[in-house]
Amino acid sequence: SNERLFIALEARSMRLFGRYREIGILLAFLTVFGGIPSSAAGKVRIERASDSGTVTMAQMVGEIRGARIVFVGENHGNRDHHRTQLEVIRSLRDTGVHVAIGLEMFPSKSQESLDDWVYDRIRESDFVKVFDENWSGNYWAAYRDIFEYARVQDVPMIGLNVEKKVVRQVS
User: Fold this and answer.
1) I need a surface site. Which of 44, 99, 122, 137 has the fewest CB within 10 A?
2) Interacting residues of 126 by C-beta distance below 8 A, sequence separation 6+
C-alpha cells in the first residue's frame, strides 16, 4: 500500500488535558505531517521528515521521547497503521515515558466511559456501544488492540473531540 501513516511532534505546552498535564507524551490519532509508509507486508519504513532519512522504531522513539505531544495519524480502516500506532505507544512506555492516548473520535463528554474502559469497570460489549455511538464506520476491530493495551497497562485515554452539535454549527 502507498498509504502513509504520519507522526508529528508538538512541543508547545497544552492546558487542554487538565488532570493529565503531567503526562509527558500524548498520542493522538490525527493525521498531521511527516511520513511512515505502510507496506503490504505489514512492516513500516520510518522516514524522518526533516531529512527523509530512514530510521528504526528505536531510533525514532529515542528522538521523540522528549516531546510533550506526539501525533500519530492513520487511515481509520488500515490495521497496519493501528499496529504501528500501538508499537509507538509500547516503545515509548518501554523507555519509561508516561503515555496517554488522545482520541479524536471521542468528545470530552465520553470521558467517564473511557475511564471505565481503562480501569475495567465496563464490559467490552457495553463499551463497543459507546465506541459506535461516537465513531461511525464499524472501526472497533481496527482499534481494539490499542484499547486493550490501554486497559491492561492502565494507560489513560482522553476524549479530544468537540460535541457533534458544535461540529455541525461550524461545518
Assistant:
1) 137
2) none
Q: Which three-class secondary structure state does DSSP give residue 103? A: strand
Q: For residues 34 and 17, give the distance between their C-alpha atoms in angstroms, rounded to a whole number.
A: 24
Give the 3-state secondary structure percentages of the chain, helix then strand then coil, rounded to 5.
40, 20, 40
Pinpoint the alpha helices (H) of the chain: 57-64, 79-94, 111-118, 124-134, 140-153, 164-170
The three three-digit cell numbers of residue 64, written as one number: 521523540
Q: Is the full-model pTM beyond 0.85? A: no
C-alpha distance across the termini of the chain, in Å: 31
Strands 157-161 and 99-107: parallel
Instruction: Retrieve residue 46's grid coordinates.
Output: 520510518
> How far is residue 10's CA from residue 66's CA, in Å, rounded to a whole number?
11
CA-based nearest residue to 36, from 64, 14, 68: 64
Q: Which amino acid is at 44?
A: V
CA-CA-CA-CA dihedral for 105, 88, 152, 20, to nearest 10: -60
